Amino acid sequence: MTADTTASRGFAANDDIGQAARLELYRLQVEIRDCEKRAYDLFLQNLVKGTSHLSLGQEAIAAGFAAAMGPSDKSFCTYRGHAHTLARGVPMEKVLGELMLRDNGLMRGKGGSMHLTSAEHNVLGSYAIIGAHLCIACGSAWRAQYQGATDVTVCFFGDGTTNIGAFHEALNFAVIWKLPVVFVCENNLYMEYTPISEVTAVPHPAADRSSAYGLPRILIDGNDADEVLRTARTAYSLARAGGGPSLIECLTYRHSGHSRADPGKYRPPGELEKWLERDPLKIYRARMAEFGVSPDAIAAIEVESKRKVEEATSLCKAAPPASESLLTSDVYADGGWAWRN
Fold it and tell me: Which CATH architecture is the domain 16-129+148-159+178-205+250-314 placed in?
């Protein structure tokens, strides 16, 4: 891994990815986009309760890192975790059902949008407390190191997390113990409503701090799934070989506001339009055409994705809501739920 990967690679003359992997990367990005757009529609129909945080525009990061993972690798996500959960193979029905608080959801409607977890798919939680999961991810990686296991822990977080104490504590701990953990900062330029650049001492909140922990500076285009995949493969190989952690900053942009309650009016005029030109799906369609992927293969992925979304939506609308007995069980250690003085 070089000291700085910011230099543009351009389109590789030697294709080290291959058509099968490219089709998989595109499938993941399209399915994440379609599923989250449907989540937005269901929210407007008052079928998604509470709030939700979408990753529209950030799909290449979830797809690239997931496509490079082995089945036993572990994912830790933020409350903006639908994309990473879907990318690890969790069915759309389970994700949309959870957002709709239905009994067919991933947590049977008990967790909601911000707490997606699937031990079966090694998605070990979406965390609503900023920065909390970085230290937990260190624990997961320490477990693998102690047991002599080969799995890598991958921890995703937003740019705002880099100004939280847990970010620095986790990095320091991971470096000292050479843990097999990969920290991935999804820098979408805004920490909720505040531009990260206005409250951070360095231009790149993760990459520019890496040297303080003896780590290489890794700053990549988070909207280019090929670059994400290549970077992920290198970081995973390093971790599996006992080389310790990596800190990767992925530059990206969310197409919508922070949450469904946020119209995003704080963004300067023209900024969204500029980033829409760098839509990861738009970039990847052009990339596949350059490498000779047939239009029919691309269209087939898009048609199948829409079919999956429609099927999942129908199943979720027909599913019953989470029952009161389910919602009130396992709340306290004794299994009850009554408030106590």
Answer: 3-Layer(aba) Sandwich (3.40)
